[in-house]
Amino acid sequence: MPDVQVVVAHRARATLRVGDVFLKVDPDRAGIDAEVAAMAAVAVPTPRVLWRRHPVLAIERVPGAALGTFGQPSPVGPASWVAAGAAVRSVHRTPLPGRAATAPVDGLARRLEEACAWFLAHDVVPADVVRRNRELALVALRPRTTCFTHGDLQPDHVFVEHDVVTGVIDWSGAGAGDPLLDLAVLTLGHPEHLDHVVDGYGGDVDRDVVRAWWAFRCLTAVPWLAEHGFGPPGDYPETAVLLAAAG
Q1: What residue stretches are annotated with the Aminoglycoside phosphotransferase domain (predicted)?
Q2: Contact, 226 vs 151, CB < 8 A?
Q3: What distance in Å separates the CA atoms of residue 178 and residue 151, rounded to the nearest whole number?
């Protein structure tokens, strides 16, 4: 009989693994609905839905290995990252329910200011590190047209085998968004593969905006992780990225 493994667990949701089945426990019905709808809509491989009974969604394991884990070297080569870039382009071509619109930045700006205030109140990094990364992050908050995005495209959500994408998982954040944020989240912990991802993605990608999203992502992620019990914020790889960007 297979063991029950806790993949991730915090106050918002939990994911368990039993053999080749993953059980996602999420009290937010809208999030589960969005995840199932997104997996049905995109033209990339996704986990097969086995059953759902609120608040649990059961999905099948996808084959292959993850592109990487934030804070650790990637176990796959450049060709797999190129393939991931092409898969992201396919996701972004998924039609939105309505016409694409220019996304407001007010809410994002508030999140950024609240995160910076949290850093200063908790003395996680020096104030000049917060200031420098805030300046970088503001570059991402420009008017832009939204498209269908994954919403949380971490490298351990993309699986590959023989340089082919075999599955993209965790679609609860899917919906209208900035395509460059998907590229930023994918490459945040592996900047050496940004060019490979862009090669696969194609088109004109503003790398400065991608780097700006790196700063925004780290600034806003650290308070959330700390408040959800992920350990001392000084130990997070996101904090290391902030320090390096301000160096």
Answers
A1: 19-209
A2: no
A3: 9
